[in-house]
Amino acid sequence: MGGVLSSGSGTCERGLCLFRKGLSGPSAPQELRETATLGFHTAYGGAAALMGVAPGRAEVLGNHTDYNEGFILAAAIDRYVVVAGRRAPDERGSRCRVASDSFPGAPIEFDAALQPEAFATKNKQSGNKAWANYVIGVVSELRKLGIKIGGFDAFLSSNVPPGAGVSSSAAVEMATALLLKGLFPEALGQYDQLALVKVAKAAENNFVGMGCGILDQFSSGMGQAGSLIYLDCRTLDCSYVPMAGAQFVLANTHAPHALVDGKYDELRKDCFAAKDAFVKASGDKSITHLRDVNAEMLATHGSKLSHGQRKRASHIITENDRVFQGVEACKAGDMETLGKCMSESHVSSRDFFGNSCRELDIMQKLAHGIEGHLGSRLMGGGFGGSTINLVKDEHVEAFVAELSKRYEAEAKIKPTVLICSTGDGAFCEAL
Question: What pTM was computed for the model?
Answer without folding.
Answer: 0.90
